[in-house]
Amino acid sequence: MAASAEALPLSDRRQTRLIGVVAIVHGVSHFYHLLLAPLFPWLREAYGFSYAELGLLMTVFFVVSGIGQALSGFLVDRVGARPVLLASLVLFMLACLILASATGYPMLLAGAALAGLGNSSFHPVDFSILNARVRTERLGKAYAMHGVFGSLGWALAPVMLTAVAATAGWRVAFLVGMVPALVALALCGLAWQSIDVRPARAVSPEGAVIQVPAVTLAALLRMPALWFSALYFFSIAIAFGAIQSFGAESVRLLRDIDLAWTGYLLSIFMVGSAAGTLAGGYALTDHSRAERMVTHSFIAGAVLALMTGFVPFPGGMMPVMFALLGIANGLAGPARDILVKRATPPGASGRVYGLVYSALDAGVAVAPALFGLLMDLGLPQALWLGVALAYGVLIAAANLVGRATRRAAGADRLGR
């Protein structure tokens, strides 16, 4: 039985346009991951919040996103990708309005929660669309573009929001934050039919389009590869959440870097990650080498993290270190998504990616509060040790995913 990409064919030109739209929309969702963090200095100045209180805002965002993501995968598989995607973009705009009008911490918490709910659907939606509409041989490059624009969304947010906040204040910055969601809604109109991916269909050997039976939650939870994938995503989220929330502030304290540079360091990391993701997607021509690419990338990342925290470089070296860290992080991105694709049963893209990526949100939810506490305790170096340790765990997890998937494939062949 063939997968739904054959059941719902697109021309090469329409596939390319669809990949572009999904990638840009993914970048927009990543922009909202950093809707709050770049404005922490202004919120801290306005209200006197501690680092831990600011970190808790990010925790709320990702806790809500993680719970919603696990559930939204099932919703996408049931009602289709398009309506869920449109609702999420509207939620982002509502969150910006609440944050812009916030009069204290409770409203900031409410805005963070609403933005997290909006974020919850994007990975189930994106991968359901790509896996259904893009030919298998193009998926590596499609995943690369998806990851590249995610990194670019992260890169845009600090530069855009800090520039607006510096000139017009943090409330105006939150209002300007609505613009990417409006752009994404307009782009959805350009691919209106292509993003209308309904509950999974397949083609029988006789050529008839039929419904793929839904994979139950109980069956998914019995898959070792799913659990190892979740561990991978949790670990990478711990590392990324540390860098995203307090990496730049940590090196500012360690190297006495000017405050204005903090947002730019994070953007440099994201641009490096985008470049690494693009390179990783085009280099991964043999999908069986996915685990090896992950291993090599994050060994380099762990070494760079330890150097950033413990080698007394001058402050002027920090942009180079953040760029290299971003490249190491990005190189593994397409290989990671190939590993999850190999472990996904037919008809279960939404729920598998929803469950696995909910672990990503769980990790990013834990990281800001954890590393914010370390920052409050005056231990900025400990952040980089935590990043290196997280990279070590995810290397082990990636190789366990590959091993479990190969064993499952071998058992399936024997069963036939």
What does this structure look like?
With 416 residues, the chain is mainly alpha-helical. 79% of the residues lie in helices and 1% in strands. It is built from 18 helices and two strands. It has helices at 4-7, 12-33, 40-47, 51-79, 81-100, 105-119, 122-133, 139-168, 170-176, 179-190, 217-221, 224-255, 260-283, 290-310, 318-331, 333-342, 349-376, 380-415, and strands at residues 201-203, 209-211. A two-stranded antiparallel ribbon has the order 1-2. A hairpin with a 5-residue loop joins β1 (201-203) and β2 (209-211). α13 (260-283) packs parallel to α15. The longest helix has 36 residues, at 380-415.
Task: Tell me the radius of gyration.
Answer: 21 Å
By secondary-structure content and strand pairing, the structural class works out as mainly alpha
Give the amount of beta strand, in percent. under 5%
Low-pLDDT residue intervals, each spanning 5 or more residues: 1-7, 202-210
Helix share bin: over 70%
Given the C-alpha coordinates, what overall shape results? globular
Total number of strands: 2
Give the distance, in angstroms, between the N- and C-terminal Cα atoms.
Answer: 14 Å
Main pleated-sheet profile:
2 strands, antiparallel
Tell me, rounded to a whole number, the average pLDDT.
83
